[in-house]
Amino acid sequence: GLECTNESPIVGSIQSDNIEDLRKRVMNSFGNQRRAVTLKDYETMCYSMPYKFGALKRAKAIRNPNPRRGNLLIATISEDEDGKLYPANSVIKDNLKTWLDKGRMVSDVVDITDAKVVNLGINFTVIGDLNKDTSIILDSCTNALIASLETRPDIGEAFYITDVYKTLKDVEGVIDVSDVSIVSK
């Protein structure tokens, strides 16, 4: 018999793709034709790697700011069995490098790295309608923020505090938003 012990959790499968994730994965696949010329082509190739080699939750290709290691940098992130973002393991990254070698330009040197996961918390103060129950207004504000942030942003996607203000301002019973602060968790 054969026996093995995993020292770290198995990652590299996708729990369930929602519509937004699928849209990001297929957006540029038509023009790609299994070759990578643009940064979007590299991202499309990352997502088209067969699942038997592992799966990435997100991938972002950029021009490498430190070109000594390669002219392209691909930041990757996987998911653990609970659906939490988790760094892709070395096997998936090695498989991805091999997969990308099939379609990359000869002059491109690709460096694959882990994307940084940033967990943010939102503290806010709103002024509510005096004729409404404050606990209902607070629950409505919290639910509105959760709904607005349901789709996880892509790697490198901007987060605007003004969107938080707008979401809170649109909640029924909120007269004004007096303060919003973003904290690192």
Walk me through this protein's architecture.
With 185 residues, the protein is of the alpha+beta class. Helices cover 31% and strands 22% of the residues. It has helices at residues 19-26, 29-32, 39-47, 90-101, 134-148, 161-169, and strands at 58-63, 72-79, 85-86, 110-114, 120-128, 174-184. Strands 1, 2, 3 and 4 form a four-stranded mixed sheet that branches. Strand 2 and strand 3 (85-86) form a beta hairpin. The longest helix is centred in the C-terminal third of the chain and has 15 residues, at 134-148. The model has no long low-confidence stretch (mean pLDDT 85).
In short:
This protein is an alpha+beta fold and 185 residues long. The chain is built from six helices and six strands; from the N terminus they run αααβββαββααβ. The termini are far apart.
List strands and helices in order, with pairings.
Layout lengths: L18 H8 L2 H4 L6 H9 L10 E6 L8 E8 L5 E2 L3 H12 L8 E5 L5 E9 L5 H15 L12 H9 L4 E11 L1
Parallel strand pairs: 2-4
Antiparallel strand pairs: 1-2, 2-3, 5-6
